[in-house]
Amino acid sequence: MNIDSTRHLQLDRESRGTRYYRNAVERHWDPFEIDLDTDRERLISYLEGEDRAEAMLDGMRMGVARFGAGEQAVTEDLAPLATALDDIDDQMFLTTQIYEEAKHTDHFDRYWREVIHPVEEELGFEPSSPTDDKWFNDAYHELFERNEEATHRLLDDPTPDNFARAYCHYHLVIEGILAQTGYYGMQQSYAKDSHPDLPHLPGLYEGFTKIRQDEGRHVGFGMAKLKELITEEDVDPHLLDETVNEILPFVDKIAANPEDQYVENVGPQPAELQQFATEKHIERMEQIKNAAEDVPDLESLTELEGVGD
Question: Are 159 and 217 in contact (CB under 8 A)?
């Protein structure tokens, strides 16, 4: 047990880790408080008699399956990072992040059970599974395997460079690019009056809203830690570019795999999502590497952009 005798009290209330921890506590939400009845009824009504019904449902099922599997994977992969950190303020924040990733996993599992399965049964489709291999491509598996390697490396070799690589894999790419862009796209698809070709699903929309707010906090923490590693631990900023550029091709293949486009011209298109991802990533990298520019505050990080009610 390590006790920091240099501190007058146990926690530094002004530290980023403690402030992020408190923000997570104050924004607590329960996946089982989200009403899914309307989603189930609207999906059945919308898909009945639709020639492309199963293909259109496939688009949603693939998204929910990938999000659910991704949230499960990152829930497991956060533990090594929490173990490797030696600051109690940061460790306390990581406990909220692990908890939140578990909640996200819970939400998508519940959506499959209470919305997708009943819709399949009502419309006479064969029951599906969110763990079926057909929802995932090789790039998806490779990206998460590399993330696991990056975080687990910290258990044996917790150097500043390895911490930087782990934050790049986890917080910048998987959460900051892949997840945030995917959530934005799904939320845009099923927002009220957003796309005439798709129904408004308030339960799915609310879940994405809550999750995106959590993820904004997670990404902000990773950005702040990367900035600290550059300014205080002399980590070369080029290491961030090299790490991100090495794994970005997997993100592109996940988002734009041709066989994954079940129904064309329904919902946001790949070019729109790619532009959103690129702009956000460039902005974050500038904030991390520019010594004079601070990481956005918590309210900015958890505020949603570009999505209707």
Answer: no
